[in-house]
Amino acid sequence: xxxxxxxxxxxxxxxxxxxxxxxxxxxxxxxxxxxxxxxxxxxxxxxxxxxxxxxxxxxxxxxxxxxxxxxxxxxxxxxxxxxxxxxxxxxxxxxxxxxxxxxxxxxxxxxxxxx
Length: 115
Prior knowledge:
With 115 residues, the chain is mostly beta strands. Helix content is 9%, strand content 33%. Strands 1-2-3 form a three-stranded mixed β-sheet. A three-stranded antiparallel β-sheet has the order 4-5-6, with no helix packed on it. A two-stranded antiparallel sheet has the order 7-8. The protein starts with 10 loop residues before the first strand and ends with a strand. The longest helix is centred in the middle third of the chain and has 10 residues.
């Protein structure tokens, strides 16, 4: 039910700099820039924390309630975007599972790989 996520560092170099004295010397940015040329970047986990949801959840989206039987290890969030489209975020930490999703107007069944 949050309204936002804070990822502290967007870009750091491979030495996790710049950082303030007393700050986090082991933090990762969403991307790492190579300080030997300042043009080579690597994408880290925080990059994907931002990129994956932004494909289906647009600015101004509203989170919807999700009901039903959930398999162990399965987490689902649903959103309605301002253009009326729906976005689903699914995390499956369990085994492979087939899920069904339905609204008043649409329904779909699909397999979600485990892990």
